[in-house]
Predict the 3D structure of the following.
Amino acid sequence: MVSKTIDMLKKDLPLEPGSLLLSGHVKTGLVLVDIVNGFCTVGAGNLAPRQPDKQISHMLDESVKLARMFCDKKWPVFAFLDSHHPDIPEPPYPPHCIIGTEEAELVPGARKCIDGFLGSVEKDGSNVFILVVGICTDLCVLDFVCSTLSARNLRFLAPLEDVIVYSHGCATYDLPVHVADTIQGALAHPQDLMHHIGLFMAKGRGAKVVSEVSFGAVKEP
């Protein structure tokens, strides 16, 4: 039933993702959104997956691979780390990613590849493109994308032209309705459905969505 719903959704709300070739001729910055243990490592906290999750694991592989490539090329990388004070709740979510705990740290794979080169978008604002990966597609990733696009449209981030979301570099959590029904106050959150909706909403706000990212020289016409 769920798969049929997703198939219908994809038909009615087609993404039609493109591809992205990164050549170095145009400045591009990579943004990692909340790739922390508390969201990605099995059993690491209240909002971490309870068991191995294929979508999250694939997102981690793709994000770490991109981060490694960007760092090897000395291109800018910016990482958001979800973190909270223990005495400031974030309803409707349970306590998570408390400052100073392992939950709020980058996953080990990401730490290893960008340790010592956790930079930022160029200080002079000279990045023309921003490539976004992370978790959750329909929450923090979408929030960042929408905020950045709004700032771009108001010309606060000139000369930024495009915000690009890599679909395979994003993931969200899974909370099926039959599980949500057993948790007081919980809302169902079917993973594949909400992942697609998050990407579609990002595209609707003006982001470009790509399903393939490659590196190489731009071919001359």
